[in-house]
Design goal:
The protein is α+β, with helices and mostly antiparallel strands. Helix 2 runs antiparallel to helix 3 (81-93). Helices cover 41% and strands 21% of the residues. The chain has helices at 8-17, 37-54, 81-93, and strands at 22-24, 27-33, 59-63, 66-71.
Length: 99
């Protein structure tokens, strides 16, 4: 799937389409808190597999039971359809993770 830069209307719609995500410094951002490190790391593993399938990878960090994720598409210089797709896949993973 090729990256298509989001226009202003699509970016404005993100607040409704992805209500748990916020725009921070031009990136989609979300923080997660899990029961413990193992749950956080397991979640990151599942996100890594989803990201690899898309060929689109997050900027992220982990500290014990917390995971912070930022999504942007460097090739397009902003948010793209790939960021939205990955955010939706990440949200779907939460149904199988102890969050």
């Amino acid at each position: 799937m090729s990256a298509q830069l989001l226009d202003a209307a699509a970016i404005a719609a993100l607040a409704t389409d992805l209500p748990d995500w916020s725009l921070v410094n031009g990136k989609l951002h979300r923080q997660f808190r899990f029961a413990d490190f193992s749950a956080a790391f397991g979640f990151m593993t599942r996100v890594a597999l989803a990201a690899e399938t898309l060929g689109h990878h997050p900027e992220w960090s982990n500290v014990w039971n917390r995971v912070s994720i930022d999504l942007t598409t460097h090739d397009t210089g902003g948010l793209s359809n790939l960021d939205v797709d990955l955010a939706r896949r990440i949200d779907a993973l939460l149904t199988i993770t102890n969050c």
